[in-house]
Design brief:
Elements (H helix, E strand, L loop, with lengths): L14 H8 L25 H4 L1 H10 L6 E5 L8 E7 L2 E7 L5 E5 L14 E2 L3 E2 L6 E2 L5 E3 L18 E7 L2 E5 L7 H4 L3 H5 L7 E11 L3 H6 L7 H4 L13 E4 L6 E6 L14 H12 L15 H13 L8 H5 L1 E6 L3 E4 L6 E8 L2 E14 L13 E2 L13 H21 L14 H14 L3
Parallel strand pairs: 11-18
Antiparallel strand pairs: 1-10, 2-3, 2-5, 3-4, 4-9, 6-7, 7-8, 9-10, 11-17, 12-13, 13-14, 14-15, 15-16, 16-17
Helix pairs in contact: 8-9
Bound molecules: FE2/S2 (inorganic) cluster (FES) and fe (ii) ion.
Fe (ii) ion binds next to α11.
Length: about 450
């Protein structure tokens, strides 16, 4: 491998990416052909944000009670009576498919004396409390009460299950405990406009992996919002993807969404000696093509990027037809505040969700959903159940491309060190002006929720 040089500063760090996609044969939709940058300042972040139980408590009250958050996929509750239990901190919500096919959500709490109604996702005709047997229909209306004569104060309306707002987009089911919440569609900002062509609603969960990460949920998601760490942490990728020239976008007036566009098929600008175009193809083949085979000779004058794009187009056929070259090859990653990450890249339909692990500020839950298109003309396959990974390594996940697996284990190793180190010192955290702008944007949005009364 070539020696790694210091990153070079640039007054317009997105210009490389913009020039690159302008030279692609299929240069991309209007939103890709522009960069959206704002000066969000350079303010430091206090370490306690990641370690304090008080901060966690405030987030539970002022953030998680007020944001739209991914609860499950529609195919996880495909049939009437399917119930998904979504939990975050002490909050537990039942997401229920009703007899009419509609989806409703309720607090997972009995309206008699508060007992939790369902421990795990399940299938029921009626929801029945295990304590005294109050029972509700799937639409949340009270169905029966033992010794009904003894509750003169109780009416069917007053003791319905308490409802939580539900929104749906792209086959994802979101919940928001705030009765005054803005509609999901407004909250999603430009996400549907940018991501609807991905066809998430026509996908199903082919693999589902849950790991307890050794880090606060914010540190966990932040590790995936920048490519700045790639040279140091994932050096195996620098010969064919350019972390340094990744474009980071935060959009004016948009507080819930941001993205990065990372060029692939070109080497990292952090390398002092650029590999030849043939060497880039060789490396991509070595890491991505299974069973292993020697890379073909690059046609005279063709770039490695153009060669790989042509290969992907041939491989994907009609699915590739409406897509720009960048959508075929680049890592185009979006985030939805506070905890969801999605990819626009056709080759990488993976979704991440990060949550606090109970009330522990030092660990978090990382759900990785690997989506696949429902095969044309076939019924939707059953979704994969979550695998609790325990000590299992990402390198053991069969649905992940081989070259990707090490990446997650490398990230997890960093996160354990980061959480430990956050408590070992006192200096404030600092984010870079450009490459870590999505982290700053995330914290500014978080702060705006925390400051709401
Ligand atoms: S606590 Fe639920 S029925 Fe009594
Ligand atoms: Fe990483």
């Amino acid at each position: 491998m070539n020696t790694i040089a210091k990153h070079q500063g640039s007054p317009q760090p997105w210009s490389f990416y913009q020039n690159l996609i302008a030279s692609d044969a299929r240069p991309g939709q209007a939103d890709i052909r522009q960069a959206s940058h704002q000066d969000l300042g350079l303010a430091p972040i206090d370490r306690s944000v990641y370690t304090s139980r008080d901060v966690h408590q405030q987030e539970m009250e002022k953030v998680w009670q007020r944001v739209w958050q991914l609860a499950c996929r529609e195919e996880e509750i495909a049939e009437a009576g399917d119930i998904h239990v979504y939990a975050i901190g002490d909050l537990s919500i039942l997401v229920v498919r009703g007899s009419d096919g509609d989806i409703k959500a309720f607090y997972n709490s009995c309206t008699h004396r508060g007992t939790k109604l369902c421990n795990d996702s399940t299938h029921l005709k009626k929801i029945r409390c295990p304590f005294h047997g109050f029972t509700w229909k799937l639409d949340g209306s009270l169905d029966s009460v033992p010794s009904r004569w003894d509750f003169p104060q109780l009416s069917e309306d007053s003791h319905r299950l308490q409802e939580v707002k539900v929104g749906r987009w792209g086959g994802f089911v979101f919940v928001n405990p705030d009765p005054a919440a803005q509609p999901l569609q407004a909250y999603l900002e430009d996400l549907p406009g940018h991501l609807d062509p991905c066809g998430f609603e026509d996908m199903y969960i082919a693999g589902y992996y849950r790991k307890v990460l050794p880090s606060n949920w914010k540190a966990s998601i932040e590790a995936f919002l920048e490519a700045f760490h790639v040279t140091e942490t994932h050096p195996q990728t620098v010969e064919f993807s350019d972390d340094v020239h990744t474009q980071y976008d935060v959009f004016p007036g948009r507080r819930h969404t941001s993205r990065f566009l990372q060029p692939v098929g070109v080497p990292s600008a952090a390398l002092t000696t650029a590999p030849s175009e043939q060497e880039i193809v060789d490396r991509m083949f070595e890491l991505t093509v299974r069973p292993p085979m020697p890379a073909p000779q690059l046609p005279e004058g063709m770039t490695a990027r153009a060669f790989m794009i042509a290969g992907l187009r041939a491989q994907l056929g009609a699915r590739a037809e409406p897509l720009s070259d960048a959508e075929l090859i680049d890592a185009m990653q979006y985030s939805l505040f506070p905890n969801m990450v999605l990819f626009r890249s056709i080759g990488f339909p993976v979704v991440y969700r990060f949550r606090p692990n109970g009330n522990d500020p030092d660990s978090s839950l990382f759900d990785m959903l690997i989506l696949k298109p429902v095969p044309t003309g076939q019924t939707r396959p059953y979704p994969a159940e979550p695998v609790e990974m325990g000590d299992m390594r990402y390198a053991e996940i069969p649905e992940l491309a081989e070259w990707l697996r090490d990446i997650y284990d490398q990230d997890v190793a960093n996160l354990g060190l980061q959480q430990a180190g956050l408590k070992a010192g006192h200096t404030p955290i600092t984010f870079s002006h450009y490459q870590e702008i999505r982290l700053r944007h995330f914290h500014q949005t978080l702060q705006s929720y925390l400051e709401q009364s």
